[in-house]
Amino acid sequence: MTRQASTGVARGCLGLIAVALALASLGGCGVDRRSSVYRCDNQSDCSGERVCQQGWCVVPGIVDAGPPPGCPAVCAACVSGTCVIECEDAQDCLGEIQCPPGLDCDVTCVGDQRCAGGVDCSQADDCTVDCDGTGACGGGVICGTGACSVECGGLGACLGGIDCSASCACDTDCEIGCGELSCPGGAGQCERNGECSSAGCNSC
Predict the structure, then answer these.
(1) How big, in percent rounded to 5, are the helix, strand and coil portions of the chain?
(2) Structural contact between residues 143 and 118, judged by C-beta atoms closer than 8 angstroms
């Protein structure tokens, strides 16, 4: 084979490799980013109106393998009006987490130093925050005007405090002790045994 022909074959092979890599890259764009919160093995794993279909708890007739158009980029998925934010890998959520406005927000920070910059739910509607790990949510948690539930497990978790003074209801669970708490209703109200506790919106 001549040198010119060999060069042509090599170029052809490189072209095929480039096409294959491009196709593989396009395939990666279709990764399903649904929240693991909604995985199911059977119907008993699902709550409310959700049904277990193909391993996921879904609302019939609603496609929520997000984030779909209109779902903010910070959300791993938008599920029935709730922005789901998952911070479970070492490089996830290194700064402050800011929940988008106009949606409920469900934030999961699992692992040491996850969401170390804190979680800001002040613009969201109802908010649920789970901080599980040493220093998780160390920058503190700020709730909005809706109902807010915050769990902090691990040394220094939520060390920056929890401010749900503007919330209509707030419930906290600090296994080792959080930073300063600001519960709804002003000083001493909706607070029991060093935790915020509500019987419902606008009710202690």
Answers:
(1) 15, 30, 55
(2) no
Boundaries of every domain in the chain = 32-65, 72-199
Question: Which DSSP helix (H) or strand (E) runs through 24?
Answer: helix 3-28
Closest by CA position to 134, among listed 151, 157, 110: 157
Instruction: Please state the pTM of the whole predicted model.
Output: 0.66
Which token pair is 83? 């922005």
The predicted-structure confidence for 115-129, as pLDDT tens digits, reads as follows 999 999 999 999 999
- Provide the greatest CA pair distance for the chain: 89
- Cis preceding-peptide flag for 101 (omega within 30 of 0): no
- CA distance from start to end of the chain: 87
Q: How far is CA 104 from CA 77, 81, 101, in A?
A: 12, 6, 8
Handedness of CA 116, 177, 168, 59 (dihedral sign): positive
